[in-house]
């Protein structure tokens, strides 16, 4: 069940859900507005033409209050908010329609698992023919919270726990071995 503004405010007041910094206007009828942080990360130019998921990728990270996203460019960004989900809530990130109508695609890879703590890394892509100015502090999306039917038996303790800033992929740490 998706949480209402009343439930969200109650959880925040009881400190069961932590989102910081948070202005009261960010709590919407069925979500919490999330804002763009000031950390942007891009894959560094490398001599190898193929990114391999079994090897670490080099990233370049900058901190800035504004970032110009060129047409066809991809950048990792972060939320301004640090989120602490209890073990009985999950969340997902939705982009704002107003942002999508500018050609800015906002993707978050899957759910935010119960027990997650950290800033949320956003994948941003400019599908427009014009550059788009990204500004720290601007509303970029919504965090939709959902109650689990039971507390998670194994809450999140993965490789992105506690992340701050736009965090690059750590898929190379997975123990997956492709079958031949």
From TrEMBL:
GO biological process: dUMP biosynthetic process; dUTP biosynthetic process; nucleobase-containing small molecule interconversion
Active site positions: 123 (proton donor/acceptor)
Enzyme class, UniProt record, top EC level: hydrolase
Reactions the enzyme catalyzes: dCTP + 2 H2O = dUMP + NH4(+) + diphosphate
Site keyed Important for bifunctional activity: positions: 110-111
Superkingdom of this protein's organism: Bacteria
Entry keywords, A to Z: Hydrolase, Nucleotide metabolism, Nucleotide-binding
The keyword Disulfide bond is annotated on this UniProt entry: no
Function field: Bifunctional enzyme that catalyzes both the deamination of dCTP to dUTP and the hydrolysis of dUTP to dUMP without releasing the toxic dUTP intermediate.
Protein name, UniProt field: dCTP deaminase, dUMP-forming
Biological source species: Caproicibacterium lactatifermentans
Lineage summary: Bacteria, Bacillati, Bacillota, Clostridia, Eubacteriales
């Amino acid at each position: 069940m998706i949480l209402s503004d009343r439930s969200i405010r109650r959880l925040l007041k009881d400190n069961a859900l932590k989102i910081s910094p948070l202005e009261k206007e960010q709590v919407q009828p069925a979500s919490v507005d999330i804002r763009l942080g000031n950390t942007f990360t891009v894959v560094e130019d490398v001599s190898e033409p193929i990114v391999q998921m079994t090897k670490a990728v080099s990233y370049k990270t900058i901190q800035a209050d504004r970032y110009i996203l060129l047409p066809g460019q991809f950048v990792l960004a972060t939320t301004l908010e640090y989120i602490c989900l209890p073990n009985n809530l999950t969340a997902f990130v939705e982009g704002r329609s107003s942002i999508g109508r500018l050609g800015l695609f906002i993707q978050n890879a899957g759910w935010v698992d119960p027990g997650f703590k950290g800033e949320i890394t956003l994948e941003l892509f400019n599908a427009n023919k014009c550059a788009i100015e990204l500004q720290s502090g601007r509303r970029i999306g919504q965090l939709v919270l959902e109650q689990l039917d039971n507390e998670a038996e194994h809450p999140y303790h993965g490789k992105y726990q506690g992340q701050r800033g736009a965090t690059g992929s750590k898929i190379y740490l997975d123990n997956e071995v492709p079958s031949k």
